[in-house]
Amino acid sequence: MNSSPNVVERYVSDLRRYARVLSAGRGDADDLVQECLARALARPNFPADIRNVRAYLFTVLHNVHVDQVSRRAETSDAVDFDEIAGSLPQPAAQPAAIELRDLARALDSLPEEQHRVVMLVGLEGLTYEETAQVLDLPIGTVMSRLSRGREALRRMTDGRQSAGRRSAARA
């Protein structure tokens, strides 16, 4: 059997990607992943007693994030991202960048419950069962949140897509 670090190594980039969704910056995301891996590797008999290592690691990452958010809520020296968002540089005006920005904004405007499910299923490619396990939810709740989240994203991005289709039809 492979040693624990070798088993975990293939999931690090997936964990980093999801950690960036959960956290404010790359450094925070790396800290989340590091703490996740430290907790997972500290578990006795890891990974022998884990049926789905990837889903387990995402669950640990999610729980580490929840722990950190709870700790930060107790302190008042954190900077609110929404307060400084206007002063941050904006992406270039190329169409693809604008579409990505619009999609990111639409994703950010989703309720947190829908956002997490959409990201785990859509970006990370987790199954409904794995997502339910990571978020500790019934599978029906995952399916419902995913459906509502996708529908909300369609509504928010439909105006941009419809306008694009109209201009393409004129050409």
Topology readout:
Blueprint: H1 4-9, H2 12-22, H3 26-42, H4 53-73, H5 81-84, H6 95-109, H7 112-123, H8 128-135, H9 139-170
Helix/strand order: HHHHHHHHH
Compute the separation of the termini in Å: 60 Å
Shape: globular
Percent of residues in β-strands: under 5%
Low-confidence stretches: 161-171
Stated plainly, the CATH topology of the largest domain is called Arc Repressor Mutant, subunit A
Q: By CATH's scheme, which homologous superfamily of the largest domain applies? A: Winged helix-like DNA-binding domain superfamily/Winged helix DNA-binding domain
What about the largest sheet?
Answer: none
| CATH architecture identity of the largest domain | Orthogonal Bundle
Could you explain the architecture of this structure?
This protein is mostly helical and 171 residues long. The protein has 2 domains: 77 residues, Rna Polymerase Sigma Factor, Chain: A, CATH 1.10.1740; 82 residues, Winged helix-like DNA-binding domain superfamily/Winged helix DNA-binding domain (Arc Repressor Mutant, subunit A). Helix content is 74%, strand content 0%. The chain has 9 helices and no strands. Helix 4 runs parallel beside helix 8. The C terminus is likely disordered.
